[in-house]
Design brief:
The protein is built from 11 helices and 22 strands. With about 400 residues, the chain is α/β, with parallel strands linked by helices. It folds into 2 domains: about 120 residues, Urease, subunit C, domain 1 (Roll); about 220 residues, Metal-dependent hydrolases (TIM Barrel, Alpha-Beta Barrel).
């Protein structure tokens, strides 16, 4: 299916530099971006679908790297059906499992945790809730998992692991297990800070993280309880190979502190924006946009840096598709604009004010999934989708 997007206003390609697109139009076909150029060169009748952005802002679809998926579009934690569909209406086009820890009666034995991760990965391999791509299956680290188990999991398609909920005697006991998972090619995210649910570690400190060296310090600003400012300094300055995941369900003061410290040493690429939902904090369909607006209006990020942290930096850290607008990239697109009544001129300006941008159109796999978000005010500009 061919889709043309024309009359693009401000844009962001998802890169660390936050560059504008080399043109004001693009064409998608077979789920990929195949051309970028001038609107004057596009013949609308040649495409099954056309989105006239009318000068609004185009960015990659947002990628949330901390979503507690289970099976299907349902969260047992908040007993909510359709939450992923609602997140799509908030601009999130990809969700990465932060482990299926909320599955009722989840297994904790070696065979069970492997089976759960593989089943979740297989479940979402072909299931696209409302068109969203869900990267399911994040194995919950337990002390009896072996290096061979991780190799088996990786061969089966499981790409992620989560530390912080296993039955380890001490937090330091995670260190060799994390090393085995990393050696097998699995991206490891570890819980950071105080415990979040019964059964989780009392605290995973900066000291533990620096010994463990996971790829991602999950909810490093607290999930929900944060580290001290001294520990923030340690993890930012001495853990430069560890991504810093800042979440809506954490501590905003700590998120701002960590972001300031990371930018001060030139480590924008380590900052990842996520939600850490659904949890006790709730289901937050606009969680990605809220965190972006907070870190821009109250914190040190520019609007373009916030988009980078919610798109291209996430997919680069996890080595997955999405998060970029370039020829050959997956066609996950998000049209944003200043919301009706906002005093800013565009979506970037809205973020600077702390206002949530209007979600005017969401595209995944080159298909228009949302042409009018039910979760945001309408856009200022007359964004229009024509689907033949």
């Amino acid at each position: 299916m061919s889709l043309a997007v024309v009359n693009i206003g401000p844009s962001h390609d998802g890169s660390l530099e936050g560059a504008e697109l080399p043109g004001d139009a693009l064409i998608c076909d077979e789920g990929r971006i195949v051309w970028i150029g001038s609107t004057a060169e596009v013949t609308p009748d040649h495409h099954e679908s056309v989105v006239d952005v009318a000068g609004a802002t185009l960015v990659p679809g947002l990628v949330d790297s901390h979503v507690h998926t289970t099976f299907g579009d349902y969260t047992p934690r908040q007993q909510t059906v359709g939450f992923l569909d609602s997140y799509l209406h908030g601009g999130t086009t990809r969700a990465l499992s932060a482990s299926e820890v909320h599955v009722p009666g989840r297994p904790t034995d070696r065979v069970g945790v492997k089976a759960l991760a593989i089943a979740a990965q297989r479940s979402f391999q072909h299931y696209r809730p409302s068109g969203m791509t869900v990267h399911g299956g994040s194995v919950i680290l337990e002390p009896d998992l072996t290096a061979e188990d991780f190799r088996e999991l990786r061969e089966a398609g499981v790409r992620m692991a989560k530390g912080g909920f296993g039955a380890f005697a001490t937090a330091m006991d995670y260190v060799p297990v994390v090393a085995d998972a990393k050696a097998a090619g699995i991206v490891v995210m570890c819980h950071t800070g105080g415990g979040s649910i019964p059964g989780s570690q009392t605290k995973i400190s900066a000291e533990v993280l620096l010994e463990m060296r996971p790829h991602v310090a999950g909810h490093v600003n607290g999930g929900p309880t944060s580290l001290s400012t001294e520990e923030n300094a340690l993890i930012v300055e001495h853990g430069r190979d560890i991504a810093l995941q800042l979440v809506q369900a954490g501590n905003l003061r700590s998120a701002i502190d960590i972001a300031e410290r990371a930018l001060a040493i030139g480590d924008l690429h380590r900052i990842l924006i996520a939600t850490d939902t659904p949890t006790g904090t709730g289901v937050i369909p606009l969680g990605m946009l809220r965190t972006m607006a907070e870190l821009v209006s109250l914190g040190p990020l520019t609007p373009r840096q916030a988009v980078t942290a919610a798109t291209g930096s996430v997919t680069a850290t996890y080595d997955i598709e999405g998060g970029r607008l370039a020829v050959g990239s997956a066609a996950d697109l998000l049209v944003l604009d200043a919301p009706l009544g906002c005093t800013a001129d565009d979506a970037f300006g809205a973020l600077e004010l702390g206002d949530l941008p209007a979600v005017a159109c969401v595209v995944t796999e080159g298909v228009v999934r949302v042409s009018k978000s039910r979760n945001t005010p309408p856009p200022v500009r007359p964004v229009r989708s024509v689907i033949r």
